Amino acid sequence: MEVKRIFLVSKVNLKVTLLLVGFNLFMFMLTIFLSVFLNIDQSASLLILGGEYTPLVLQGEIWRLVTASFLHANTLHLIINMWVLFSFGNYIENFYSSKKLFTIYILTAITGSLFSVIANIVSAYSTSSFTTNTFTLSVGASGAIFGLVGVLIGNKLRPNTYSPSIPINSTELIVFVGYNLLVGFGLNVFGSQVLINNWAHIGGLVGGILLGLILDTRHTFYKRQFKRILEKLLFVLCLIIFILSFFMNFFIIFRSFGLFSLF
């Protein structure tokens, strides 16, 4: 199946895909509400809600590696990412499973954020300007979305064993990735007002390829017990990481604004 057909195919079983899209929409509405309620700009609202900001991550707020992937800077940013997430998420969920889609999203969100933070640190040290003004706030689901694409590429790189190959054109996937990375680097180089976090995209892609090499599709003929246990453990771990990340983030918000006194 070609990449362009992914965006046209609609399946019934979209449990986690719709949940991920719905939670991203909820966080976007919460971002707007917080901006209006506190009379602050949207960047400040995104920072409060868990945007990836390297100095805060280095201070111990590691949950931002996850929460940033559920936040978006504006409506266009949200619409584009949710359209692609719905399309590729649908495809991944049908060929892998709902649990594996969730696992892939969380793990590649983390690898994307880690690449971004590391790139920021290296850039700051290379320019000898390690100050808070050196870093920018990063949000968006695109790192995890590149992770979904990476899984499909990784599946194509697997040896032909008991897991059937997913029917998708790997060349078109590579073209899709290359085009988006070139556009992203181009916008940054030529001084566009839109700042693209290409390192998050690359980190998500790398994480996705690794998972594509490891995870089996739902139609695998033979699966070792070790692989079954590993996949279940990864899902449980990602669920715990997701819950703890947002718990810690909202705990900090409630404590900072003294909202615990209302209960």
Structural class: mainly alpha
- Coarse shape: globular
**Largest β sheet strand count, sense and barrel closure:** none
CATH superfamily caption: Rhomboid-like
First-residue to last-residue Cα separation: 53 Å
- Percentage of β-strand residues: under 5%
Mean pLDDT: 86
3D architecture notes:
This protein is mostly helical and 263 residues long. It has a single domain (9-262), classed as Rhomboid-like fold (Up-down Bundle). 68% of the residues lie in helices and 0% in strands. Helix 7 packs across helix 8 and helix 8 runs parallel beside helix 10 (198-214). The radius of gyration is 19 Å and the shape is globular.
Sum this structure up briefly.
The chain is an all-alpha fold and 263 residues long. The protein has helices at residues 3-6, 15-38, 42-48, 54-58, 64-67, 75-95, 98-126, 142-157, 170-189, 198-214, 225-256. Helices cover 68% and strands 0% of the residues.
Question: How do the strands and helices of this protein lay out in sequence?
Answer:
Layout: H1 3-6, H2 15-38, H3 42-48, H4 54-58, H5 64-67, H6 75-95, H7 98-126, H8 142-157, H9 170-189, H10 198-214, H11 225-256
